[in-house]
Design a protein that fits this description.
The chain is mainly alpha-helical and 421 residues long. Among the domains are: 152 residues, no CATH class; 57 residues, Orthogonal Bundle (Arc Repressor Mutant, subunit A). 52% of the residues lie in helices and 6% in strands. The chain has 20 helices and six strands. A four-stranded mixed sheet has the order 3-2-5-6, covered by helices on one side. Strands 1-4 form a two-stranded antiparallel sheet. A hairpin with a 2-residue loop joins strand 5 and strand 6. Helix 2 crosses helix 3, helix 8 packs antiparallel against helix 9 and helix 15 packs across helix 16. The relative contact order is 0.11.
Length: 421
């Protein structure tokens, strides 16, 4: 066959390293930010921190490293996988129908990272409201992998390993490893290397190389995100305290001593590293300033919280974005996995945003759920997923888990127990 050269043009959007760094720092919580500072200081000679602050972050960085082999590892993501995925959907640029599909899929991902239902279940739940097939579902799952870890949303171990192997460059080893993961996991587990060698027509040594690659993969990628309810330690990012005339906001660790080293231009041996240090410092300061701005607006709006712990009015990410003139996705990243210490205890920042969904209060949503159930066909009662689809049509974006919670609070049984025979 003659060789030919084909030229294809493709549009793609890729963040610059500095912008990507800014996004990652915005997402980072108190524990993560100290770890990231420690990592950067260890690699870049042009940024400096005084001894007391350096000891503090090195101690925390060590605590993260030393916990990685622990059975009860503290997740550096701050809270569970489902919440992590929900809080990072902004980054995927999904259209309206894709968001509905993504929310439904996330609801059925377990702590190990596996999808608990087959694709046919989701197709049945979504049709006829949303036209969808297995390829659409897999595409959304692979997009969820982009904001989490390869393997998340797989239906079984074989698929989980294949999702991870797809991240590797296409070599003989990675291609054969995918074949083994797809068809010969039992043989691999029983170390029946000769049978695999014979059926794939490769040498035993090549099978052993594939085995080494496969066992290096993560069979339960969801566990890296931990379970927020089981987290042992919480490090608040923001502290708020009552003052005579209002309140005071402070960031837990300013690290004001973090600065560029004093050096003349002619003594800079690596200009690229020096510029990276300047960008890192700029991004750290941007994060600090805007987290404080968001926290200040939260308590300007929820003025009475510091007196009676009540959140009297609905509060949305969009409201903050409009007021502070920053993008909604930036606000989402800033409240992601972060905590505020208040006189009443420590709360997730997103706690202050949970009392409205697209301009609908909790009580109005509960009333609407009750109305939908009251008007359903009692011979074929609506599942929580079907109720969710109805609410999505009305621009009420809410998870199936929340619908189940509200339904329980209303004293309404699940669909399987509402059916009239």
């Amino acid at each position: 066959m003659p060789l030919s050269i084909q030229l294809k043009l493709k549009n793609s959007l890729k963040l610059s390293p500095n912008i990507e760094q800014s996004v990652n720092l915005l997402k980072a919580n108190e524990l993560e930010i100290e770890y990231l500072i420690s990592e950067f200081l260890s690699k870049n000679p042009y940024l400096d921190l005084d001894d007391s602050d350096r000891v503090k972050i090195n101690t925390l960085a060590y605590s993260i490293d030393s916990s990685q082999d622990s059975e009860h590892e503290l997740s550096i993501y701050g809270y569970g996988l489902k919440d992590y995925l929900e809080n990072n959907l902004f980054d995927l640029g999904l259209d309206y129908d894709e968001k509905i599909i993504a929310h439904l899929l996330i609801d059925y991902i377990d702590d190990n990272g596996y999808l608990t239902e087959d694709y046919r279940f989701f197709i049945n739940e979504l049709l006829p409201e949303i036209k969808i097939d297995e390829n659409n579902l897999k595409t959304i799952i692979l997009k969820l992998n982009q904001i989490s870890s390869p393997g998340i949303g797989a239906r079984n171990l074989s698929e989980c390993l294949i999702f991870q192997l797809d991240q590797f460059k296409a070599t003989a080893i990675s291609i054969n490893s995918k074949k083994i993961a797809e068809r010969y996991l039992n043989e691999l587990g029983n170390k029946n290397f000769e049978k695999i060698s014979k059926e794939l027509n490769i040498s035993v040594d090549e099978v052993l190389e594939c085995h080494e690659l496969i066992v290096s993969l993560n069979p339960k990628p969801g566990l890296a995100y931990g379970n927020h309810k089981d987290s042992e330690f919480i490090f608040p990012d923001i502290k708020v305290s009552k003052e005579h005339q209002g309140f005071k906001i402070s960031i837990s660790n300013n690290y004001e001593s973090l600065k560029l080293i004093e050096i003349s231009k002619k003594d800079i041996l690596d200009s690229e590293a020096y510029n990276q240090a300047k960008w890192f410092l700029k991004n750290i300061n941007y994060r600090k300033i805007n987290i404080i701005r968001v926290a200040q607006y939260i308590f300007q709006y929820h003025k009475n919280f510091l007196h009676n712990k009540n959140l009297e009015y609905p509060f949305t990410i969009k409201m903050v974005a409009n007021e502070l003139e920053i993008h909604e996705s930036t606000v989402s990243r800033m409240i992601n996995s972060k905590y505020i210490e208040t006189p009443f205890g420590i709360f997730q920042m997103k706690y202050f945003f949970t009392h409205e969904v697209n301009n609908f209060s909790d009580n109005l949503i509960k009333e609407r759920i009750k109305e939908i159930i009251d008007s359903e066909n009692k011979l074929t009662p609506l599942s929580d997923s079907k109720i969710n689809l109805t609410l999505h049509k009305e621009k009420i974006t809410i998870s199936r888990r929340t619908i189940a919670k509200y339904r329980d609070q209303l004293g309404i049984l699940p669909a399987s127990k509402r059916k009239v025979c």
